Amino acid sequence: MIQNPLSETDRLGLQLIEKTWGKREILRAQLSQFSRKRRQQLINSADLETKWERYAYSRLSNLEKGERLPMKKLIDEVEITFGFTLSHTHKSRLYCVRRRVYNDRNKLLKSGKTEA
What we know:
By secondary structure, this protein is mostly helical. 67% of the residues lie in helices and 0% in strands. The protein is built from 6 helices and no strands. It has helices at residues 8-21, 24-31, 36-44, 51-61, 71-82, 88-111. Helix 4 (51-61) runs parallel beside helix 6. The mean pLDDT is 88.
């Protein structure tokens, strides 16, 4: 549908889509279809750039209370699911994601909410 290189018409069309997606009314209508928990997960993981980071965040945050997921198993899952071998930098990033999930859970527990 879009030519390579971009034609002027393609560029204008993409700019229109970019402006539309950024409108609060559009975002609100899209987000209203999700549960409150799902909306909160989107907010919490919005700054995770890659799909595999969001997968790891979701996988860790959806664990039942008391359930554990060893990092070796998570690394294996990510490598199999996304088809690449994680470098040392990627693995470090996974540990940061795990720490973030645990911190988010602790915040929920301290605030008195029982979702974690």
